[in-house]
Structures
1.
Amino acid sequence: MVLGDYRFALVDLETTGGQAGQDQIMEAAVRVLGGEQELEWQSLIDPACAVPSFIQGLTGISSSMLRGKPRFSEIQETLWSYLDGAILVAHNARFDAGFLRANFARYGRDYQPRILCTLKLARALYPDWPRHGLETICERIGFYSEVHHRAMADVDAMKAFLDYARADKGEAVFNFEAGLLLGLPVLPPTISQTDIDAIPLQPGVYRLLGEAGELLYLAGATSLQEQVCSHFENSAGDSKAAKLARRVYAVQWQALAGDLSAALHVNAALRAEKPLLQRRMKAMGKPCCMRFISNDRGELQLRLRSGLPANIAQTTELLALFRDRKHAKTRIAELAKEHDLCLRRLAVLADTESCGCRICTGAANLPSPAEAEAQLVLASNVEFASRVKAAFAGYLYAPWPFTEPALIHEQSQAGCSEWHLIDDWRYYGSFTWDAATGQLCELSDQARPVDVEAIRLRCEQSKELQYEHYRLLRAFRDDLPWLPLSEFAINKAQ
């Protein structure tokens, strides 16, 4: 049982009001489950103040009943012995936890328990019930008590609900929902540990599916098993992760050769498929290029252009590439601030816009606009241009380093091997090598061999440059072996 190794302290408090900072505890009850034996403790507590009439009517506890009872200072050590190290279980647990935290703090105790709220658990297990108050729950499950709003009576009601829900929903469902609320690592009831153990600790792509087979989420992973498990380990309470975990019915996965392969596959899949519980990929505008030009005075300035030059593969001009125009403007502003570049000098501001650089804001300790202008003139155009190009070095377009298509070889520690076909930073598919036939095979259909000339012809197909592929391939340029197609053919022929 997932929760069997934990101690649970079922707690209920009756208080003189609802504010933990100013009202007092006047009754406490606790029942400890788990461990060697079940323990219980309860006590009336003198709050050292009058009990409001409304509270007396609700609980039946009067000021006279509390006269002569121990103060919290006298019982706090005993109560702590039951609660310390146990999971706090309470109905509307934030209330009880707040009072306990405030009262223990007065005696130097930091009470920060893991909390299981039976109100939230009831809502998760029985969302069709119209109300989830403790009295309503007792009516639903057929648990009757002679008193309500007394500490031990409410503890007994909570235990009755927990026993009912575990029997009614089954151990797997009960543990899953309780585990989610506690932020513990739990698996959906339809997924066993055997299923998880079968997922390899290697790169790949996985899909989380709902009960009807609908796609909820898909992603790539460096370690498939660890990434899948993370969805059920970090999904506490009512978070988005918990909502996803509650709907997962099955996991599909595909082991791949490495991180590049996983990223290429996910990029294509997210464009073709529509996961229900995953943020949609933003509709991309045209890639945007930024040119570095010199004006009549020899000053370096920036110019943005949506789309890419038709001759970008042959260009010798210095260009910076961005995902789209919005991305370009954002990064220009960020990099200019980071490298203290004047946006006015770069001519990327409209007349009504203001620049936040040190010179334009007066932070350069220049006493007048005339002196600021003089400082700009004195600054070397060459030095300024060098700083600008250094600031945007990470976005400069790198010409395709080959005169023909290339195959990138990627292989996992488990021996999964792939060849990714790239030409002019454009991705044309992934293949495996069939040593028996001496041919490449489509990764999506390994029964279909493809010879080198066929994939060379494939690269002659017109294809737009995708910014995501370009950045991804650049990132792996020095990490994986790249072979021009002609060299690949020679090597495999030998």
2.
Amino acid sequence: MFTLPDIPGRYNVGCTMFAARLPSEVTIPSSKFRPENNLRRPPYTPPLVLKEIAFTAYYPADVSSLGTRKCWQGHHRYLPWLPRPIKEVLRGYAHFGNVSFWFVYILCRAFVSHIKFPAHLNAPLLSPLERKDDRGRPWPLVIFSHGLGGTRTSYSHFCSRLAAQGRVVLAIEHQDGTAPIVTPLSPVPGLEKEFQPEYRLYTKLEDVYWDNDTGDKYAFKAEQLLYRRLEVYLMHKFFKHLIESDETTLPIIPSCNEVHTVDGPWNFNLNNRPDDLAFWKSWHMDSQNPDRKVECNRDISLTGHSFGGATVLSILSEPPPTLYAAQFDPIPFNHALALDPWVDPLPSPGPSPWQVEESLRHSPTPPELLVINSEDFTFWDEHFDRLKQIVETWNQSDNVAKATLLTILRCKHISFSDVELLLPFGRRKRAARKLIDIIFDLSDAFLDNRLEDALRYHQLRDDKTEWVRKPKKEKEGKRRLVGELGDIGFFICHFSHRFAGSFLGFR
């Protein structure tokens, strides 16, 4: 059995897929599908229709009572890394990569479909009273946004490691056409109508058009960012309602219009299913412990990779969206972590921090920003210049905490996901494990307000570059930062000059 590396940390990790259907569909109507689109979608219809919020929760798990359940074997339950159904998901990846479906199916079916990651499926949430620090305090909440071609499990190792340190991580499955494939409207047992799955493939720019086309190649990405902002605010609202409910609110009959699980445990008529009841009660408030199990009202962290990093910056630079003629309350973010953000789709100039004072009343400390870049994106000169401008704008703002920009040497854009961890062996696999360890170490330290201390254990580098010889067929070499794999390029920080100078050799 092929598995991702075991998850180090203080706690066992649980994993559950949640979903909630909206009372009515929400459409972003500007773009439309072309008649000749290859997505099996009706022509002239809008591609961005929000019907459902879906997300995977990674969290500290209570595994004390799981040994007696037949569906468990041993201490770990290894969950499929590739979402199901396999054939449709591989069809989505083939479409995303512009390659033959049968090529992907033959190449990946025998290997990728058997890859597992270590987590406890649908285990109850561990009580905050069992915390090894700050006993009884609610678990902190982290929201994660995936990049182009990502899924709810593409970053399972990173999200699981955050959870293993004592956080609840909500990895949203964006249904804006950026995942290889999604299946909206997850069924709940007991529905009167037969469930017909609707598969949505990755939406490419050539699949859509506008009645008044301005020629902006990022116009569709701008609409997707609005869609993603709505998803994040709705997910927070639905999850907060789940956490602030109690067992008296559990339904008698099944309903998709509230938070439910995609594949069980089911949250209705629970007197006949005590195991399912234990799962749902672990998330709800109860009379013996009236406090919330997860902190949803302050100190929330927002994270994302690539287009998910752009989503982070977009959310922080825009006021809360409006839905059903009502505006959402601001989400009280205190940390924002952008992993190798792709900033081209963001409006220019900007983005700059949202400076509406009302947002600050919901959080004692405005959000602090950390950008961790790959070396590949750092040498994308035009892109990196714009990223530095964004970070400097954050540092110049008066009403937000400061921003830091770091680069990990020899890091690639895909190093932030699980992809390179899937390699069976060899030097690249060892390098991938080292890089994901460093990415997590910096991220964990940042979320715990100890980034400056954590950097003292890493080799810091300045912006000196060198040229690497390439094969004879290529005329030009390749630039890279001077240093070794895993060293930290220290570009922009809000730490003291004394700190930066002592590590970079400045006087």
